[in-house]
């Protein structure tokens, strides 16, 4: 009978115990599919442009157009991404069209100037994102180093220029926006907020609906202004270009609010254009008529210029007789048909906010829709997205798979130890017989 020395049995006992312990530790260290630790520590994406044609997103497929995406997966240092549109991204945008209409570039609907995209994902579980005019970055996100890029050649000192419709169509719109940008923030406690800026905007409106009204008003004004200027009035026809020029304040006044920031999220800014045009025509016509009438009164008060004053007053009355019926019926002749034309042409929603099914939050400064309800194309400009952020919980730890494996190995190790103990007892019993 072969017997093992006590030293040999003890060594075997220590070997099995050590192997079992090592197996358990190894199992606990196995990564378990990110350990189901709820995604990433933090993330954010600043994206200048997101475009859908006929309901299908056409910019997600291009890596260069996915924006500045910062992902912090392990809390080993804050992640910052400043990603301007490169040549590939710009070429991709210029190639996007809705039917025969180019959407971007000098021959397109949209031109962008000095715009950037930026995101930061921090170790504490907070994140921020920015997109739009780089001049707005310090106020919106506290960063002054966002790299700018251009798409086409917008009007000087403008971050966005839009050309919609034409003078030969029912409506034509030329829109310049000085500052267009947005930001989104997710705090370490999970609170999500968004901001946007749309300022210094000008709208020029023409087209056959407007020209039909101006075709009656302009000749009457031109005759009056010509006579008044012979007496030093210094008047000009505000509609000589065939356009009605509006400011952002004109639109918000038509909306009945003091500022664009007072509009509900997602409001279509273009829906106020028709009434703003009617208001502008009425106000500017009245201004010319009032100025000419005031001059006529002054001229008549002086014996040497009384005749000129009488002639000018007659001209004022003649102009009023022509123009007043137009202004009285402007709601029916201009506002209604222009509203229909604008609705068919485009929409411009401001301050669009959305929360994804995954818990992400997106702030969009402006959503441009082409066609009725954006049926032809939808372009989101200046998009900032944050979340979902898991914070420190996302740092990889032992997960269910590791624990299951460890439990199995613990059982195996325990069985091995128990078996060895029984064998030792059996040997001791045999020696004593």
For the structure shown, list the relevant keywords.
about 425 residues, alpha+beta, 7-stranded antiparallel sheet, 9 helices, elongated, disordered N terminus
Description of the molecule:
- It is built from nine helices and 17 strands.
- The chain is an alpha+beta fold.
- Strands 4, 7, 8, 9, 10, 11, 12 and 13 form an eight-stranded antiparallel beta sheet that branches. Strands 1, 2, 3, 14, 15, 16 and 17 form a seven-stranded antiparallel beta sheet that branches.
Spans of at least 5 consecutive residues whose pLDDT stays below 50 are 1-8, 19-37, 399-403, 425-433
- The helicity comes to 25-40%
Sheet with the most strands, sense and barrel status: 8 strands, antiparallel
Overall outline: elongated
* Tally of separate helices: 9
The overall pLDDT, averaged over residues, is 87
Produce the secondary structure layout:
Blueprint: H1 6-29, E1 42-53, E2 56-57, E3 68-72, E4 79-82, H2 87-94, E5 97-98, E6 101-102, E7 110-121, E8 127-133, H3 137-141, E9 149-151, E10 160-165, E11 172-186, E12 192-206, H4 208-229, E13 244-247, H5 248-255, E14 267-268, H6 273-300, H7 306-328, H8 330-345, E15 346-355, E16 361-370, E17 377-386, H9 400-432
Antiparallel strand pairs: 1-2, 1-3, 1-17, 4-7, 5-6, 7-8, 7-9, 7-10, 8-11, 10-11, 11-12, 12-13, 14-15, 15-16, 16-17
């Amino acid at each position: 009978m072969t017997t093992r020395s006590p030293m040999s049995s003890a060594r075997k006992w220590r070997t099995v115990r050590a192997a079992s312990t090592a197996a358990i530790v190894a199992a606990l260290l196995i990564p378990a599919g990110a350990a189901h630790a709820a995604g990433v520590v933090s993330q954010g994406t600043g994206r200048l442009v997101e475009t859908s044609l006929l309901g299908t997103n056409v910019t997600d497929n291009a890596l260069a157009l996915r924006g500045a995406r910062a992902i912090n997966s392990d809390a080993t240092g804050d992640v910052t991404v400043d990603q301007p549109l490169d040549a590939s991204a710009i070429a991709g945008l210029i190639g996007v069209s809705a039917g025969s209409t180019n959407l971007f570039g000098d021959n397109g609907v949209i031109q962008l100037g000095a715009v950037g995209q930026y995101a930061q994902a921090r170790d504490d579980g907070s994140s921020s994102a920015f997109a739009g005019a780089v001049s707005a970055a310090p106020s919106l996100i506290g960063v002054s180093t966002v790299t700018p890029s251009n798409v086409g050649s917008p009007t000087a000192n403008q971050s966005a220029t839009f050309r919609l419709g034409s003078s030969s169509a029912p409506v034509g719109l030329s829109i310049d926006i000085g500052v267009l940008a947005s930001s989104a923030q997710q705090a370490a406690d999970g609170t999500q907020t968004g901001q946007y800026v749309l300022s210094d905007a000008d709208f020029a409106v023409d087209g056959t609906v407007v020209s039909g009204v101006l075709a009656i008003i302009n000749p009457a004004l031109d005759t009056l202004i010509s006579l008044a200027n012979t007496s030093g009035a210094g008047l000009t026809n505000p509609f000589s270009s065939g356009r009605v020029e509006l400011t952002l304040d004109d639109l918000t006044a038509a909306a009945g609010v003091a500022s664009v920031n007072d509009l509900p999220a997602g409001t279509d800014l273009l829906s106020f254009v028709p009434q703003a045009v009617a208001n502008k025509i009425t106000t500017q016509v009245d201004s010319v008529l009032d100025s000419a009438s005031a001059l006529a009164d002054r001229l008549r008060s002086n014996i040497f210029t009384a005749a000129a004053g009488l002639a000018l007053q007659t001209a004022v009355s003649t102009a009023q007789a022509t123009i007043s019926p137009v202004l009285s019926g402007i709601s029916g002749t201009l506002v209604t048909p222009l509203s229909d034309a604008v609705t068919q042409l485009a929409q411009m929603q401001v301050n669009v906010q959305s929360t994804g099914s995954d818990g992400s939050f997106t702030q969009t400064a402006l959503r441009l829709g082409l066609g009725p309800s954006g049926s032809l194309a939808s372009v989101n400009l200046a998009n900032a997205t944050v979340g979902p952020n898991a914070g420190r919980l996302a740092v990889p730890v032992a997960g269910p798979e590791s624990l299951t494996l460890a439990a199995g190995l613990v059982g195996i190790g325990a069985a091995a130890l128990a078996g060895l103990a029984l064998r030792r007892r059996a040997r001791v019993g045999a020696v004593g017989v």
